[in-house]
Design goal:
two-stranded antiparallel sheet; 2 domains
């Protein structure tokens, strides 16, 4: 086991602490412990693991990692610094989560989401709905560069439409997430799409064009599956429910096309590269304004107070943004659609993100993540195995570090030289990072992406993950291309000399 000296501060110059680098066996212990606890949680708690059991599991696994780090000679200050750094990297996601919670409530009480459901039910039918939902999510996400914003706005409405059509929420959420992550992955506005080529050493548009080789077949296969699935649904059964649903929504809200100005404005702002937080805040405030203009008749019931119209409106609008509200109609299915949990509904997810960052921070500070990743690199002896190792490492960091950015940045740094030494152009690495790092993050329940989308859509990660076909297929597609040497770009002898 390698060691290194770590001198103490100047007030004790004679004291030198010896830090031993972790071996592979020690590095795997916290991860194996975590996997066992998470599996036990699923067995006993089902899809309610987000309520606290997974958070405790992550903290206990972090404690195990901390004990091992202490035994190796690491000081608490080093581990604490790693935790703080890890949590800091997630603060943007946490703030966006709070704002999405407020936006969802404001868009419900304003009638924006009900209007989307109302008009969507008259356009879509169960047979083509899954394909349409995937394509709509892809278009919006490509235009905005944000899968999160797409799922929190258009995705929520599409989920409501699909449930009203009688589809299972898992397959609906899977189709929405597949489309949203495809669009995010192929958009030049996306942060991860810019990050991956930066880590690999290529330019943005070369990266996007090269991704089309694997991303096109992946989304194509997913769409075919959704289309075949749609033909198994009985459209007659759904059509019998639709008139009652439309009547209930129309009776509860003042539905009109002007309500679409709110989501269109938000999408326009994101396309114009307005940062996510200001854009979502603007969408929330517009939702509040439109609620005052179009839905003031809801304020008395939502506020549940006796008072002046101003008091009722103020309380109702505040409640819609920070806590759970439910619009009650004569139709039970509609009641289930017209509910939201506001900012308070995001607290379990934020709790999960924080504990995941604690675990990832300690593992990284103690060198355990790097040790496991280096062992994976050593297994790569061919182009196919190198790409497979890269994909496995990205998935590994999504599971352990719980952050898609780390799942791109760390493997990008680790493998960049290895790809260059094998004569592979940097776009081969950047494509692999996105095919495996970006899209699999949403399949991990304790990852920031998985936890967020499960909360926003109200569908457990374990329920939607098996149906997010694009996200599942993508890493396998890039590995297949690697092993069969399809579309693998290499340096020519001239380019190799120039690059050298």
């Amino acid at each position: 086991m390698e060691t290194e000296e770590n001198p103490e501060p100047s007030n004790s110059p004679k004291t030198i602490s010896i830090i031993r680098k972790p071996g592979l066996g020690l590095s795997l212990i916290p991860l194996v412990f975590l996997i066992i606890l998470l599996g036990t949680n699923v067995y006993f708690f089902g899809d309610d693991t987000l309520a606290g059991s997974n958070q405790i599991a992550l903290l206990l696994a972090a404690a195990v990692a901390g004990i091992i780090a202490f035994k190796l000679g690491y000081k608490w200050e080093t581990l604490e610094s790693g935790v703080v750094k890890s949590i800091s990297s997630a603060m943007s996601a946490i703030l966006i989560l709070f704002m999405i919670g407020a936006l969802s409530g404001a868009w419900l009480i304003s009638g924006v989401v009900p209007a989307m459901i109302y008009y969507g039910l008259q356009i879509l039918n169960p047979t083509i709905f899954l394909v349409a939902a995937c394509i709509v999510a892809a278009i919006v996400s490509m235009a905005t560069g944000s899968s999160w914003s797409t799922i929190a706005t258009v995705g929520v409405a599409l989920l409501g439409i699909g449930k009203a059509l009688g589809l299972e929420e898992g397959i609906i959420a899977g189709a929405i997430i597949s489309g949203a992550y495809f669009g995010d992955k192929m958009s030049p506005l996306s942060d991860t799409t810019n990050l991956a080529p930066a880590m690999a050493g290529t330019d943005l548009f070369t990266h996007i064009r090269y991704m089309a080789y694997t991303t096109g077949p992946s989304i194509g296969i997913a769409l075919v599956i959704y289309l075949i699935w749609g033909f198994t649904i009985d459209p007659q059964a759904a059509s019998e429910e639709i008139p009652a649903i439309l009547s209930a929504i129309d009776g509860a809200f003042n539905i009109n096309p002007f309500l679409f100005l709110v989501p269109v404005t938000v999408i326009f702002m994101i396309v114009k590269k307005v940062p996510a937080l200001p854009a979502l805040l603007s969408g929330t405030l517009m939702g509040v304004l439109f609620a005052v203009i179009f839905q003031p008749h809801l304020f008395a019931d939502i506020s549940s107070i006796d008072g002046s119209p101003f008091q009722q409106g103020y309380v109702a609008l505040m409640r819609s943004m920070y806590t759970s509200i439910n619009i009650v109609t004569e139709n039970e299915m509609v009641n289930n659609l017209l509910s939201t949990s506001g900012m308070a509904g995001m607290l379990n997810t934020i709790w999960l993100i924080l504990t995941a960052m604690v675990f990832g921070g300690i593992m990284e500070a103690a060198g355990m993540l790097q040790r496991i990743a280096s062992a994976i690199i050593n297994l790569a002896h061919s182009t196919g195995s190198l790409i497979a190792s890269t994909a496995a490492t990205c998935v590994f960091f999504n599971v352990t570090a719980s952050d898609q950015y780390l799942a791109i940045v760390v493997p990008g740094r680790m493998f960049r030289t290895a790809y260059r030494d094998r004569g592979l152009k940097p776009e081969v690495l950047s494509r692999t990072l996105e095919d495996s790092g970006t899209v699999t993050s949403v399949l991990v329940p304790w990852n920031t992406c998985g936890a967020t989308q499960a909360t926003v859509l109200g569908v457990s990660t374990f329920i939607y993950a098996p149906y997010a076909f694009f996200n599942i297929i993508s890493p396998f597609m890039t590995i297949v291309f690697g092993y069969f040497n399809i579309g693998i770009r290499r340096y020519s002898k001239t380019e190799d000399k120039i690059a050298a």
